[in-house]
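Section 5.1 Outputs to date
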Amino acid sequence: MKRALTVCLAAGLMTAACGSTDAAEQPPQTAQAPIESPKATTSKTPATTPAQSPILKKRIGEPAGQGCDPNGGVDDTCDVIFTITDIARGEQCAGHSSGTVNLPANSEVVRFDIDVTTAPTFKYPDADTMMLTQFWSVVGPDGYLSRDLDVAIGCDTEADAVYKSLEPNTKLRSSIPIVVPIGAKILRLSDNGRGWEWEIPT
């Protein structure tokens, strides 16, 4: 009787041990962050930028980089290096001044010029599409974010940097006139809450 009880206890311990081993070998469940799709609307909350925000403030003429070495700055380790070289508001384009094209009410044209240099190969998977039009936005005079910006019809445009995917080992220079709310304060390039912004001169 004692021998039978011992065998049963041993079998029970082996079963418990096997169950523990199986549980320990299961990979941990990792929660995936939701993927946000671009929204063609004006945000319902003010677009404030906290001091520790992942939206980096940049000056006109100051280089920025994507896919850079995390231990370094903006240098040749980056997939993409780009510089906003000028931002100007209130442009009177030929189509607008002649009356053939009318701007939406309470809107104006802001033009920004950008220089882009890409690495021979991309390490970051989305480096080639980071500058497409859906990732640009502005903060209006009331503090609200406006996305899905239109390029101004009737203005001289060289917009390859925002219309087409970037190619490795190339240099681009683009000048993009966009339609924004009158008095817009900030130009922003961002995706999923991370990016860069520049003050629009008055």
